[in-house]
Every structure is written in structure tokens, then in C-alpha cells.
Design brief:
4-stranded parallel beta sheet; single chain; 18% strand; alpha/beta; 9 helices; 5-stranded parallel beta sheet; 291 residues; 9 strands
Amino acid sequence: MDNFRLVIITGMSGAGKSQVIRAMEDLGYFCVDNLPPMLIPKFAELCAQSGGKVSKIALVVDIRGGEFFDTLLQVLEGMEKQGLLYEILFLEASDSTIIRRYKETRRRHPMAPHGRISEGISRERDRLEQIRGRANHIIDTSGLATAELKGKITALFAEEREHERMTVTVVSFGFKYGMPLDADMVMDVRFLPNPFYVESLRRKSGQEALVGEYIWKWPVTQQFMEKLSGLVDFLVPHYVKEGKSQLIIAIGCTGGLHRSVFVAEKIFEYLKGKGFKVNVEHRDIKHNVIE
């Protein structure tokens, strides 16, 4: 069971378990919501014996399980005797925060389906007191924005190095074919010298050395790349810190064959050299006839 990690997520209703499970999925955890406690040991054993295919599990177990939930402490004690390691993440929030969230969603509290929300909160706190005392991690989500909560989850449960938590995709495109709809950043490089007007380069792509040499020889290109690299250096770590799991940088020129392709390749190599998980795509080369 080396490198096997099991996280049991529990806590107050309305404290943010749904947001946490989505954040865990982004971190590569196999997630199951509302699993009956008695099934946890067998499920963990099956995953641990999967040959490394499932090595990170996050299970949400809470009072929605009704009477089943009351067996959780007994199940955890049994797991400890079997040598099954686990962590408990307990989520809580202030009464006023939980009440506000339930009012906004117009849902009934599971511990007071026909009564006041405050009564349900009080009953639930009493019922969860013992499991809270066994928690490895306790997060109070009162006043936390979704991004802040995701950042806390990432800090606790991400196993990659910080810069590996986000995948960067650099896409070259031609404005004449439209911008990528999923782009987070768009850079227009139509101001750079255009190889299209050099007959010997017109039908070659920005991936070819002759085209790259032509674009790079101009001072404006070198100045631009220096500034763009600085912008990327500044922005990407902040996106990682914010909890962003994917960043798409789109580089556009007129037809998506020369300048955007060259710049996209440069940024791809730059980020790759810094250890980021990065991909490069050239969306509109297919629209051009290349020798």
C-alpha cells in the first residue's frame, strides 16, 4: 500500500463538501460521494490492490447516510486494526454561514427536514462531535471563497510540486478563422514582420527553421518575446496559487501559419524548460497548404 492515500471527507452540512470533492477530483483523486461507512474497508482494499491504477481516494461520508453514518467510528477502528491508513478532513462553518447558504439554495437541512435550520445545525454538531475529535484536518469555510477553499485543499492534498498542479496549453490560431473559445489569455502577434510576404517562406509554417530565423531576426520580435516571457513568469505562478488547474494561452496571427506558430513554440519551450506541464497545439495550420 505504498503511495496509497485515502481521505475521508465529512463535517457539517452546508460547509462545502461538494466544492471540496470537485477540488479533489482536479487533484487526481478517485472520488465517491455518500458512501456507506461499512463499505469503506472493502472499497479501500480493492483500490489498493489495483496495481497503482487507483492510488488516491476521497470519500464523502456524512449524516445523509442516516443510521449507516453511526457506524463510522466503529469502521475506522476496524480499519486501524487492519493497518488501513486514512486521513479525516472535517469541514465546518459558523451557524450564520450555514443558515445563509441553506436560505440561498432553499434546501432543507437533513437533520431538520420539517423544522428550523438552526435546530438541525445544533443536532448535527452534537452528532459529529466525536468524529471531529478524530480529524486530521479541520477547515472552517466561513467567509472562504470557492477559490480560497480550493487553495487550502490543494495545499493539503496535492502531491505534485507546485508548478505541476496546472497544465498549460499554448494554442496558435489565425484570426481569420476565429479565436479559441476556451482561451484564458489571447496575444495578438499580427504586428510582427510577416513571412507571408517572402515568396520562399509563404507556404512554410512557423515550425520550420527558415521561417523562425526570419521572424526572430527582427528586434521587435526579440523585445516582444522578452516582455511576453516576463508576463508569463508573473502570471502563471499566481494562477497556480489561485488553484487554476488548466491555463490556455492563445497566440494569434492572421492565418495561423507563421508568426503565431513560431511564438507558440517559443512559449511552449520556455514553460517546458521551467518544469511546467505544458502542451502546444497549432489549430489552424490545417487551413494552409504547406510544402
